[in-house]
Specification:
The radius of gyration is 28 Å and the shape is globular. By secondary structure, it is α+β, with helices and mostly antiparallel strands. Strands 21, 22, 23, 24, 25 and 26 form a 6-stranded antiparallel sheet that branches. Strands 12-11-13-14 form a 4-stranded parallel sheet.
């Protein structure tokens, strides 16, 4: 039994009416859905039959399906619901699951015997067979898997589900005769799929082959072509993979607030009251809600206060957008954020910043239109030309899905590596991030929440760990932004490193400790390898004697200059805005890849607002004192602070 609280019909409607309206379920089916769900009635077998020619399956009607009959809405069970990260592990560890999935997937019947044998055998041979089968199933399952997103605490979680044999064997057609939609029962906390006839005026005769549209509801022609391309593979129509005009402003969509900007006409940063307040000679009063910061501020030049009213500087973990009001009501106060800093802190907008850095200054104002035009014309090497040397090729899956799918198919045709990493727009710490070569998986994840996809770095510079072997690693530089116009930016000379815990290889993409480096938030079972930057540079010199770290650092600084110059070349909301009442500390995460001529090339991964500086405070107690002096001082370099001027 499904369990959960039993509902009467009126309660059911109150809880689920909005959901049924959203999926387009005709009203005359509402009571039937209630009755079938509450009583767990799966009666499709009375109306349909599954048939096979030995290779392919199809579903046919065995009775006339009358769309006006309230009983012709059907429940389809989800035989397996899973987290994408746990797919392969579950296939190996849950008894009978691999066999069940094998029986459902098309053209996998020959693998069924292998599944049976591997589960019946003992020892290493059985596990080896099951591992190979799990690899095949993990690749193939995305052809039939669907997804939905649920709220869990303060986070949104992507869940995948495999429909039962009946639902999975109903094939695609551009002119379908039934519609599918997932339905979530709120009180019983379970999901099923509802199926009903598409055309209310046309019934389905006996013998009709039942079909659905796997891209149902996608009205954008380019995105629809992208979804079907994942299904059709080599027979996809590349000419249909074009970008339509953006209907929503990417700088304002998904809750991005339009910020108010201060009127700064006729006043320089040096003349601004906030700047003069910092130069008054009095201790600078700081109010913060950032963990570790208050206790780490020990220099007498600064004073920690609890009240925002008496503070000179506000360091907040909450996004700030009222810059005009700040200037009018509190002209001497400073906040730890710049107007429109989401252009560097949100990954989809950072892509735009990176791309426009490749254009002459005179063309950057129209960069977005020029780039979308280039994506549609798709000349040879178009994707490589649109991205700077310091950023992996990437696409915003909300607005650029067709362009990505075309690039993927072109890569496949040319025999190039097609490993990609999918990331949410604005989450850090590796949350909901996936590595895969599977186009179906990539396309379906695009519809779960706003994401970007970037080329996975297949030739990273590796670091040898004596306890593990050669592993991936990434580097974090702390960036101190003092001013936008003119651009004054510094890097903290101490940097931080994160290491994978297992040897690198372009396989087993679900193996977190092999492909990811963020270990300090993973709980039990994941150990954080701590190597200080001074120790690291010595070890790095031993491992790569032809690549002194000073040369790497020089290229990283060049990357940072190009990035921030591009980020500030346009006014808000498309670029960082000038604000004498702003100072900020960011964390830039990057990796190194092997380029041509055995050159190490930095690759920017993300820029973080309000980074977790716990390790910085733990190992470098003066960290915040140094950063604050750099943010507020007049002669930053001459003060002998451990910072380097970038611009």
């Amino acid at each position: 039994m499904l369990g959960g609280e039993e509902l009467d019909y009126q309660d059911f409607i109150k809880l689920h009416k909005a959901q049924m309206e959203h999926i387009g379920l005709p009203q005359h089916y509402y009571r039937t859905v209630f009755e079938k769900v509450e009583a767990e009635i799966y009666d499709s077998g009375k109306y349909f039959i599954m048939m096979t020619d030995g290779t392919n399956w199809e579903v046919q009607a065995t009775r006339y399906i009358d769309p006006t009959d309230a009983n012709t809405v059907f429940l389809i069970d989800h035989c397996w619901t899973f987290d994408p990260e746990q797919c392969r592990r579950a296939l190996v560890e849950i008894p009978g699951l691999a066999r069940r999935v094998t029986s459902i997937l098309p053209r996998m019947d020959d693998e069924g015997e292998e599944s049976d044998q591997s589960e019946d055998e003992d020892g290493e041979m059985a596990r080896e067979k099951l591992d190979k089968l799990a690899d095949k199933l993990t690749e193939r399952i995305w052809d039939v898997v669907e997804t939905y997103t649920v709220q869990k605490d303060e986070d949104k979680v992507t869940l995948c589900y495999l429909m039962d044999e009946f639902g999975s064997r109903i094939g695609h057609c551009d002119t379908p005769n039934v519609k599918f939609a997932p339905f979530f029962h709120i009180t019983k906390q379970f999901a099923i799929t509802l199926m009903w006839p598409v055309h209310p005026e046309d019934g389905l005769d006996v013998g009709t082959i039942i079909t659905r549209d796997v891209a149902f509801g996608e009205e954008d022609s380019g995105k629809r072509a992208a979804r079907l391309a994942a299904l059709k593979g080599k027979s996809a129509d590349l000419d249909a993979l074009t970008l339509s005009e953006e209907k929503l402003d990417p700088f304002k969509m998904y809750g991005r607030k339009e910020q108010t900007l201060a009127d700064l006409e006729g006043i320089t940063d040096e003349e601004h009251p906030a700047t003069k307040q910092l130069q008054s000679g009095n201790p600078i009063k700081i109010c913060t809600d950032l963990p570790f910061m208050a206790n780490a501020i020990t220099d007498p030049q600064f004073e920690v206060v609890e009240s925002q009213e008496e503070a000179d500087m506000l360091f907040s973990s909450v996004h700030f957008d009222q810059f005009r009001q700040l200037g009018e009501n509190h002209p001497t106060k400073i906040v730890n954020q710049f107007p429109s800093e989401n252009v560097i802190c949100c990954k989809d907008l950072l892509l735009k910043v990176g791309r426009r850095s490749t254009l002459p200054q005179s063309e950057r104002d129209t960069a977005d239109q020029l780039i979308r035009c280039a994506m549609n014309t798709a000349k040879i090497g178009w994707a490589e030309r649109l991205h700077p040397w310091w950023m992996p090729i990437g696409f915003d899956l909300v607005n650029e899905l067709p362009a990505f799918v075309r690039h993927y198919l072109e890569n496949r045709e040319a025999g190039k590596d097609n490993t990609w990493i999918v990331k949410p727009w604005n989450l850090a710490r590796g949350k909901h991030t996936y590595v895969t070569r599977n186009l179906s998986m990539l396309v379906k994840l695009a519809y779960t929440s706003p994401k970007i996809v970037q080329k996975y770095i297949e030739r990273p510079v590796l670091f040898y760990r004596g306890d593990v072997g050669k592993v991936k690693f990434d580097i974090r530089y702390v960036i101190i932004l003092k001013s936008v116009h003119p651009l004054k930016i510094y890097k903290y000379n101490v940097f931080w490193l994160r290491f994978a815990n297992k040897p690198f290889g372009l396989d087993q993409f679900d193996e977190y400790e092999k492909h990811f480096t963020v270990m300090n938030y993973q709980g039990k079972g994941s150990s954080l390898k701590q190597i200080h930057d001074v120790e690291f540079t010595k070890m790095f010199a031993q491992q790569y004697p032809d690549h002194p770290w000073s040369g790497v650092d020089k290229e990283v600084c060049r990357m940072l200059r190009e990035c921030f110059e591009s980020a500030t070349c346009l006014p808000p909301p498309r670029g960082l805005g000038r604000s004498p009442q702003s100072r900020a500390i960011y964390a830039v995460d990057f990796m190194l890849r092997w380029g041509e001529g055995k050159k190490m090339v930095p690759q920017m991964l993300e820029i973080n607002f309000n980074p977790d500086n716990q390790r910085a405070c733990k190992y470098h107690p003066e960290f915040y004192n140094h950063c604050l002096k750099a943010l507020t001082g007049q002669n930053v370099i001459s003060d002998e602070l451990p910072v380097t001027e970038i611009l």
